[in-house]
Design a protein that fits this description.
This is PfkB family carbohydrate kinase. Pfam families: Hydrolase (PF00702), PfkB (PF00294). Residues 5-306 form the Carbohydrate kinase PfkB domain. The chain has 20 helices and 23 strands. The protein is of the alpha/beta class and 626 residues long. Strand 12 and strand 13 form a beta hairpin. Helix 11 packs antiparallel against helix 14 (444-467).
Length: 626
């Protein structure tokens, strides 16, 4: 495909500052600031070009304006190195500086930006050159991306009128519009915008940072499509992309990513990938799906407006962890409960799948057992001391709480996965933070040993009380859990226990608590060769070995990992929002992550196990008031 890009071509400048090299100027007496490293990347429409280039189209043509300055020369050079044809990148010598954004990074944090080109005024002569180049591109290219991001970059009213005249004349061509300030002024274009912009196009006032509910986005997107009859693509952050065309509104789920994210430039990645797919003849929903995967690549690239190549997109598209019902996850007031129960119905369509359950997989800790309740409080200080090293007791409060927030978020996202993978993530956190010298960073096995030492000290004390008869099964299990297991056993359900905890520990704890014999399918946990076990592997093996349809399997857990894998396999995913301290009742902190992981149903505990059995096996169920 041959793609043309019109827009505001910018240069992003990154200066990595290091105060250790700073000195006081002899001439001025002022503190100098030292730059340890600096680099420059394409920004604005130039980043669109970079993203196109990463996917290797047949040709890229740029149409825009730069100043007669150092930044302009660097930008042209970078665009040409990306394989773009730059004869329509016009230099305006007066009243125009190349758009450039200087970003200083201090201790990993971006300081307030320094902007060049804010007061540019494009001349009529430049506009006419641009319009002529746009027409040539409409004649010779497969698609045109029309990208406008800078306030005031279109300063002549007749430029919009003349561009619209061209788009009407070539109305059969793909013109993908992405304009921060003029989306409502252009016609005969496809549209890529975000959820707030689509609301604004429908006359709604939306504050920066607000999330527009998906139901509203679908209404607004449909209205814009019906007005112009050209496909519309609305990006909704972690909630994914919604595509609108003659087939209706098609939702592409967002992707759950566990690493630290930088969303700068994700929109440029999406529009590049979507436009290439459309030019190649793919339907809107497939283009949106591809754009969604591409954006998931770039948001994981920090401190740069990154790109996504074919290998990276294929990698992130392999068994992605989708985000489901993001609006419902963040708004518990929208919860819908089945009549006379504490069962929250997250996915109404699941009701048609119930009644066929023959196999069940259970997570252990927080789902059935509370023996390890409080593991987060042990992992958190282990991670903090690992990340901060010798700075743990001396670092200032702001920096300490910043790291603490990152640790809490990481634990929140990784609940339910094998400990070794959490420790693998910890190694990355230690390295990224930069407080610990490289030679002093431990490996994932060493960090796991430190964590396990603290955890097992707590667990052993509880096991001793259990063995001594000072506390019983009911003191270390979730309300109704064992009775529910027995009900499933009576109905001939084959049950499996699968935990991220080490296998021998899981088996021992289940035996001590008196229900190991109920898991006739087997008890599984983490192995020394951690690559040989995962909840995904267990679930896939059950389905393959027993030739199951998805709805013959139910998965129960309080962590997103097992819920996500149950959903992926087509099973019935039941999330447990357990309050592990009191062993019954709802923990609101668990609900959002379980909903996003794809839970069909949510329960706080198993105290209503008889009603749950009736629901799952469709025994005289009434849904009238659901």
């Amino acid at each position: 495909m041959k793609i043309a890009v019109y827009g505001d071509f910018c240069l992003d400048s990154y200066w990595i500052m290091d105060e250790r090299g700073s000195e006081v100027s002899i001439e001025t007496g002022l503190q100098a600031q030292a730059v340890t490293r600096h680099y420059y990347t394409p920004g604005g429409a130039a980043n669109v070009v970079a993203n196109l280039s990463a996917l290797k189209p047949a040709g890229i043509r740029v149409i825009g304006t730069i100043g007669d300055d150092m930044q302009g020369r660097e930008l042209r050079s970078q665009l040409e190195n990306l394989g773009a044809e730059t004869t329509a990148l016009f230099i305006q010598k007066e009243h125009f500086n190349t758009y450039s954004y200087l970003k200083r990074i201090i201790d990993g944090k971006e300081e307030p930006r320094i902007d060049f080109g804010v007061y540019n005024e494009r001349s009529d002569e430049t506009d006419q050159k641009l319009l002529a180049a746009i027409e040539q591109a409409l004649q010779e290219s497969d698609a045109l991306i029309f990208n406008q991001q800078v306030t005031g970059s279109i300063n002549n009213e007749h430029f919009i009128d003349q561009a619209n005249a061209l788009f009407a004349r070539y109305s059969d061509k793909i013109v993908m519009l992405d304009s921060r300030h003029f989306n409502d002024r252009f016609e005969n274009t496809y549209l890529k915008c975000n959820d707030r912009e689509i609301a604004s196009l429908n006359g709604e006032l939306v504050n920066p940072g607000d999330n527009v509910p998906i139901t509203e986005v679908k209404k607004y997107g449909r209205a814009v499509y019906e007005k112009y009859k050209k496909p519309v693509f609305v990006t909704c952050g972690e909630r994914g992309i919604i595509a609108f065309d003659q087939t209706g509104a098609r939702e592409v789920h967002g992707i759950q990513l566990k690493s630290k994210l930088d969303t700068v430039g994700a929109g440029d990645t999406a529009i590049s990938a979507i436009t290439l797919c459309l030019a190649a003849g793919f339907p809107s929903v497939e283009a949106a799906t591809f754009g969604n995967f591409a954006a998931a690549v770039t948001v994981q690239k920090l401190y740069t407006t990154g790109t996504a190549n074919a290998r990276e997109i294929l990698s992130v598209s392999q068994d992605p962890d989708f985000i489901y019902n993001a609006d419902l996850a963040e708004n518990e007031r929208s919860a819908v409960f089945l009549q006379d129960t504490e069962v929250e119905l997250c996915e109404p369509g699941v009701l048609e799948k119930l009644g066929q359950i023959r196999y069940a997989v259970f997570d252990h800790d927080g789902t059935i057992s509370s023996l390890r309740q409080g593991w987060e409080e042990i992992m958190e200080p282990v991670m903090m001391k690992a990340i901060l090293g010798d700075h743990y007791n001396t670092i200032d409060a702001n920096a300490f709480h910043k790291v603490l927030g990152q640790v809490k978020e990481f634990i929140h996202k990784t609940t339910g996965i094998q400990t070794i993978y959490q420790m693998e993530g910890l190694v990355n956190l230690v390295r990224e933070a930069g407080y610990v010298p490289e030679q002093d960073i431990l490996d994932k096995f060493q960090y796991k040993a430190l964590y396990n030492d603290g955890l097992m000290e707590m667990v052993i004390k509880r096991m001793e009380k259990l063995a001594a008869g000072e506390l019983g099964q009911e003191d270390y299990t979730m309300k109704g859990a064992v009775a529910f297991l027995q009900e499933l056993k009576e109905r001939g359900v084959t049950m499996y226990l699968a935990s991220g905890t080490d296998a021998e520990d899981v088996k021992h704890e289940a035996e001590m608590l008196g229900y190991a014999h109920l898991f006739d399918g087997g008890i599984y946990g983490a192995l020394k060769d951690y690559t040989k076990f995962s909840k995904k592997m267990i679930i896939e093996k059950i389905i393959k070995d027993n030739n199951l349809n998805g709805n013959e399997l139910a998965v129960f857990g309080d962590g997103p990992d097992e819920i996500r894998e149950g959903r992926r396999a087509g099973g019935i995913a039941v999330g447990i929002t357990s309050n592990e301290v009191q062993r019954f009742g709802h923990n609101p902190a668990k609900r959002p992550r379980l909903v996003k992981a794809g839970a069909h149903l949510l329960i706080p505990d198993f105290s209503q196990y008889k009603k749950l059995i009736t629901l799952l096996f469709q025994e005289n169920v009434k849904y009238a008031d659901a």
